[in-house]
Amino acid sequence: MTTAPLEIERRFLVARLPDLEGAVPAAIRQGYLSWPGDRVELRLRRSGDACFLTLKSGSGLAREEREAAIDQAAFETFWPATEGRRIEKTRWTGWLAEGRVFELDLFEGAHAPLRIVEVEFESVAAAEAFAPPDWFGAEVTGNPAYSNRVMSVEGVPSDAGPTRT
């Protein structure tokens, strides 16, 4: 029996933008083949020229995640099925002072000006021990209203706070 790969991450709203010097931006568009409420999340993503199909299950701090690179033709074949369940954002990938990678998503279109930052961890213990820097805002880890899949259908949650100003 093999263990499914886990994604262990914490997600936060952004209280203020950090200095992004040295961070790398990537334009991302993603669409969902599954609906909010489905047991699993099935997502198409294009980041730059790379395309992926991702399956996620579970909720909260640690979730199962399986991802496969797909070619442009496969992406274009399935993209129309995501109509009405799409997100566009620019993802800035950089380093926190303690050496951890952050992924800062600046949402575009109907989801602008929402900003969410994610940090991934090697273990649940490391995630629980993490002290977020002062530019991080309220934690939204495990809050389904802030999952990209839910927001792709329902929009930005009304309690998004200062990220909406």
What is the fold-level CATH name, i.e. the topology?
Hypothetical Protein Pfu-838710-001
CATH fourth-tier homologous superfamily = Hypothetical Protein Pfu-838710-001
CATH class categorisation:
Mainly Beta
> What is the second-level CATH architecture?
Beta Barrel
Distance between the termini: 49 Å
Order of helices and strands: EEEEEHEEEHEH
Rg calc: 16 Å
Instruction: Describe the sheet with the most strands.
Output: 8 strands, antiparallel, barrel
Structural class: mainly beta
Q: Tell me, rounded to a whole number, the average pLDDT.
A: 93
Overall morphology: globular
**Count of extended strands:** 9
Taken together, the total number of domains comes to 1
Q: What's the number of helices?
A: 3
Percent of residues in helical segments?
Answer: 10-25%
Order of the strands making up the biggest sheet = 1-5-4-3-2-6-7-8
Characteristic terms for this protein:
globular, Hypothetical Protein Pfu-838710-001, 3 helices, 8-stranded antiparallel beta barrel, single chain, 165 residues
Question: What does this 3D model show about the protein?
Answer:
By secondary structure, the chain is mostly beta strands. It has a single domain, classed as Hypothetical Protein Pfu-838710-001 (Beta Barrel), CATH 2.40.320. The chain is 12% helix and 42% strand. The chain contains 3 helices and 9 strands, in the order βββββαβββαβα. The chain has an 8-stranded antiparallel beta barrel. A hairpin with a 5-residue loop joins β6 (86-95) and β7. The longest helix has 7 residues, at 72-78. The relative contact order is 0.26. The mean pLDDT is 93.
